[in-house]
Design brief:
Elements: E1 4-7, H1 12-17, E2 45-50, E3 53-59, H2 62-77, E4 85-90, E5 103-107, E6 112-113, H3 115-118, H4 125-144, E7 147-148, E8 157-162, E9 165-170, E10 177-178, H5 184-207, H6 217-236, E11 239-242, H7 246-258, E12 261-270, E13 276-286, H8 288-297, H9 303-317, H10 333-350, H11 362-380, H12 386-397
Antiparallel strand pairs: 1-4, 2-3, 3-5, 4-5, 6-8, 7-10, 8-9, 11-13, 12-13
The structure holds adenosine-5'-triphosphate and magnesium ion.
Adenosine-5'-triphosphate binds near residues 38, 39 and 171.
Length: about 400
């Protein structure tokens, strides 16, 4: 059987052909590999270079490889944070003509860390709570989209910094199933698997001495479930308001938006007596702020970063002479937003020397500078301005920043 590379993007097969497909993944020479931390897995997984990209290569049987590839494509279509599938390679043969296992190739998720590497420095309980929050939000998003994960765990999740919090990405979709909608039973089952897996992983860390002594592994598993249930309830519950109080509905929609979710449809019904209305939102995937920032500025960021940057953008807009919402002759928000990117965002990011940025992307860096500005302004009792903040950040914070996963300040 001939080597076959099935890929979504026509540019990828050419780059991927350069890789040593005739050698078992475990024996790939150093020169092809990228030494980045990996989580634990049953299959052999390696990171390799393909042109400008770093890719994750996982050896597994053909059927599960194709299945996982398709599921990851579905998740991408649904806007769920998961690793991007690039290709499946089949028909590999070794030097003596013996068949080798097919592989699934995904794009390495830049700036991400497997949780084990995050626990190498003992993590403060507050940071752990943020991690768990991110995982609960991911599970809610998957469930809203009808995806039952089947193996939610810390090892199957990747974490990226997101404005002082974390954003969680699904990395292993092998056991997943996509339905039109999940029943409560299916959700509960999935949640229970998550609880058992996570408590187990934390017990493991505890045994190896890598867990903060105040953290109770079993309690933490239960807490993720509570966090998930609270969020699910907030997103899907039916609310009843006195008739005429439509602004209550608006308020609830805003709250949902603030949590990062959009309301795709809603059902509003008056009671037979007409004195109350019932409101049922149909909430869809998160990323409200992310999409808004992308539309306005072209910056593609995580959700919390987007919320933070939008706040900054809005307050900056208000200082511009041609800013007058509702006035047809005033500058359009997109125009102002691009001006902000050119005159504020980019110069601030450029003021930080590349070698000091660590693994922070521009949005995270900008967020950190905003945090620092806020901190210095509080101390000075007046706004010290962005320029002073970035200078002080470069001179005093970055050189001493530990490259630990914890954000510098709460
Ligand atoms: N695209 C990617 N970007 C970053 N890291 C990745 C990527 N793909 C895989 N990894 C790393 O490799 C590890 C193993 O991947 P994965 O969970 O898919 O393997 P697996 O053998 O199917 O796992 P399991 O034992 O749960 O079945 C992940 O925990 C992650 O650390
Ligand atoms: Mg896995």
């Amino acid at each position: 059987m001939a080597l076959q590379i099935s890929a979504t993007n026509p540019e990828h097969p050419a780059l991927l052909l350069e890789l040593p497909w005739g050698t078992p993944l475990e024996e790939w020479p150093e020169e092809y590999l990228v030494p980045l931390p990996r989580g634990i897995s049953r299959h052999v997984v390696r990171y390799a270079r393909a042109g400008e990209e770093t890719v994750a290569v996982k050896e597994l049987a053909e059927r599960p490889a194709l299945r996982e590839y398709e599921l990851l494509r579905d998740l991408d279509r649904l806007g769920i944070p998961a690793v991007d599938p690039l290709a499946v390679v089949t028909g590999r043969t070794g030097g003596a003509g013996e068949p080798l296992e097919p592989v699934l190739i995904t794009r390495h998720l830049g700036g991400s860390m497997p949780y084990r590497s995050m626990f190498e420095t003992t993590m403060r309980p507050a940071t752990m709570h943020r991690l768990m929050d991110a995982l609960a939000v991911l599970l809610v998003r998957l469930h809203l989209a009808g995806f039952a994960w089947g193996d939610c765990s810390l090892s199957n999740t990747l974490f990226r910094r997101d404005a002082g919090a974390y954003a969680a990405y699904l990395v292993d979709a092998e056991t997943g199933e996509l339905h039109r909608r999940l029943s409560d039973g299916q959700r509960e089952y999935d949640l229970d698997l998550a609880r058992v897996n996570i408590s187990g992983e934390l017990l493991d860390l505890e045994a190896s001495g890598a867990l903060h002594p105040s953290v109770d592994p079993v309690g933490f598993g239960a807490e993720i479930c509570a966090r998930y249930r609270g969020l699910w309830q907030e997103l899907t519950r039916t609310s009843v308001y006195p008739a005429g109080k439509y602004h209550y509905i608006e308020r609830r929609i805003r709250r949902l938006n603030d949590l990062g979710f959009d309301v795709a449809e809603m059902q509003i019904e008056s009671s037979p007596t007409g004195d109350t209305v019932t409101f049922v939102p149909k909430v869809v995937d998160a990323g409200h702020h992310q999409r808004q920032l992308l539309r306005l500025t072209g910056l593609d960021t995580e959700e919390n970063q987007a919320r933070r940057l939008l706040t900054d953008l809005e307050s900056w807009m208000a200082t511009q002479d041609d800013y007058a919402p509702g006035d047809p002759h005033a500058a359009r928000p997109e125009v102002l937003a691009h001006r902000w990117v050119r005159e504020v965002f980019r110069p601030t990011v450029r003021a930080v020397p590349r070698e000091l940025r660590g693994d922070m992307d521009p949005a995270e860096l900008y967020h950190q500078v905003l945090e620092h500005r806020w901190y210095l302004s509080e101390r000075a009792q007046h706004d010290i301005g962005l320029d002073t903040a970035v200078r002080d950040y470069v001179d005093n914070i970055l050189p001493t920043a530990r490259r630990a996963p914890e954000p510098a300040r709460d």
